[in-house]
Structures are given as structure tokens and as C-alpha cells.
């Protein structure tokens, strides 16, 4: 997320010569009364009459300045600090509307138990779920009866998330539990590129303000990154800071690549095909432009972590800690959003020392931990987990 300014409006008002405290407004009140030739002489701090006048004027003025002007009006005049319906109005000025929450859709692979056999039907509304992740269980359901043909070992069934939100865009293998067994089916799981449509939360204020800022750059409409960024981020599940561009004519003069990244999970070929059709075949590209939408390239890494828990932890507590640490590390590599570590990003260094600090902060049961890995230096790629090894040490 790009840095968003947080101005001190109270200080800005003060610098413009407007008092922001009661003492200042009491002084202004006396000065204005003197200018008007007031003959009130009973202005002692102990005078009930003068305290009533000061309270009636100063208290109301302070509310108007500190609560209404500084706390409400000024922040909602600017994109950087406006919130909620006021930010929606600023977005409307740029012909933008806040993106609503959507459900993830994708494909689940169902595996036959035997090497061969008759046709099997995966019933509509079959649920596939995850193990508990930080106390949350996520489920997707099969959208229509799906037939596994005779002697075929595997079939892909289209599924939809139980609820709206980006939390359902989980990484490979998270969905693998069938609460109700299907005769003849041994396993069900989501492959790496399973998402057809990424789920999304309702667009946050910070995400919307970045799209508004980008829209000002997109006013020329064609041939510039901002225009294509605006087109791509209009689709649910793609945020402004998750679109990168590769220039230098990768396929010859006039060509460029748009590399997209999801907060969790990886885009499927079907999602990329839809985005390319939207850009290239529906009249959205500039004359002579050749922009191709691709998934952000990734690099795979074997992560090894050793954890020394507090000695007071029971064996059960240690197993729970191990599972929680695993999901926290996977969240850092964009596999789930149930924890909030610093995530891997293209171009930026990924720091294992920072990840260690965040693990200590999240889990006070950890006495010490070590990674065998050095920091990952990224180019235009995003690090992913090839294998994750976590051991709980006893001494």
C-alpha cells in the first residue's frame, strides 16, 4: 500500500491564525468586545455573568472549530483523508464507484479412489472445507452436478465460496476436507491456479483513495500505465498496488506486459484469459498498443524454521503452536489472510528478521526461533513456498 499522507489539520488551522484552544478564543472575545466599544466591566473570572458569556460563546466556537471544522469538514474535503460516504462522493467526481464484496469462484479437483470404475456424480452443493486457520474454517460448494466419466481418475468441478471476501482466495491445497464422504471419491483439493474469479472484500477507504488518485493520471485514457491500471483494478479482487508493468517492448515495439498479483492465491488461466479479452478484444486498448495481462512470475523457496517454545507448554500446546506458526508464515507468502504479517512483494526485499519479530509479537509462547533462510531479494517476481519445514525444539 502506497504511503498516504495524514496531515495534522489542527496544526494547519493553528498556523492559519485560528485559535484552537479556549484561552485563545477568550482573548479573541475580549478583543472583539473592545473593538465594538463594549462597556461591560464585570469581566472578572469569578463573575457568574462573565462566565456565562464566555461559556455561551467560547464553548460553541470551540465545538465549531475542533469538532466540526478540524475533525469533520477538513478531513472529508481531501481524497487522502476523506472516509466512507464522503470518499464515495469524491470518487463519483472521477466516475468511480466503490467495489462491493464478491465471492470467490474456482475449480476443485476430485480424485477417484480406484484406478478405474464407472461414472461418478459429484452432487451439487457438496462442501469442501479447510482445517481451522486462526480459528476460522472456510468452505466452498460445488455449483452443479459434475460427472466423473467412466475410468477417468480426476475431474475439475466449479465451486463458489460460502461467503464474500478475499479470505477465501486461499493457496494450493487449503481446501481438502470433505465433511460428507462421496462414494468412490478418495480426495478433493484446490490446485495452485484454481481461482476463476477472485473473492474480494468491500473496497476499503485506502484502496478506493488509491484508485481515485490513479484516475487523475488516467485522464488521457490511452497509452499510459494509469489507464490500464484503472481498467484492471475495476475488476473485483485486483487492487491498485497489485498491478505492475513490464516495459521495454518484451514482444517488440509497442508492446508491454501487465503483471497482476492477488493478495492471496494465484490467478487461474481462465481469469487471465478473461482479463486479456477485456483489454484486448473489447476495445479497451490504445491504437497500436499490445498489452498482455499475465500472472506475476514467482520464485519458489524452501523455508526452514526452528522454534523453541516456553518450557511450560504441554505437548498439545506445542502442536497447536507449530500449526499456528505455519499458517502465519504461509500468510507472509500470500497463502491466507487470517494473519497480518508483512507479505512478499515484487521488487522489495523480504526480510526473515522482520518475520521473526512479527512471529514473536503474535505468539508470546515462543521463547526463540531461527530461520535457515537468508533474505529474499526480489526482481519483478513474488516469492512462493515450495516446501515449509517447522520443527519444535525441546532444548
Give an overview in words.
The structure is a single chain. Helix content is 30%, strand content 21%. Helix 2 packs across helix 3 and helix 4 packs parallel to helix 5. The chain has 395 residues and is of the alpha+beta class. The longest helix has 26 residues. Strands 1, 3, 4, 6, 7 and 8 form a 6-stranded antiparallel sheet that branches. The chain has a 3-stranded mixed sheet with strand order 9-10-11. It has a 3-stranded mixed sheet with strand order 13-12-14, covered by helices on one side. Helix 7 links the parallel strand 10 and strand 11.
Distance between the termini: 40 Å
Helix content: 25-40%
The largest sheet, given as strand count, sense and whether it forms a barrel, is:
6 strands, antiparallel
Number of strands: 14
Strand proportion, as a percent range, falls in 15-25%
The low-confidence runs, each spanning 5 or more residues with pLDDT under 50, are none
Secondary-structure element series: HHHHEEEEEEEEHHEEHEEHHEE
Work out the helix count.
9
Average pLDDT, all residues:
88
Q: Which structural class best describes the helix and strand composition?
A: alpha+beta
- Which geometry do the CA atoms define? elongated
Radius of gyration (CA) equals 29 Å
Produce a short descriptive summary.
The relative contact order is 0.10. Helix content is 30%, strand content 21%. The chain is built from nine helices and 14 strands.
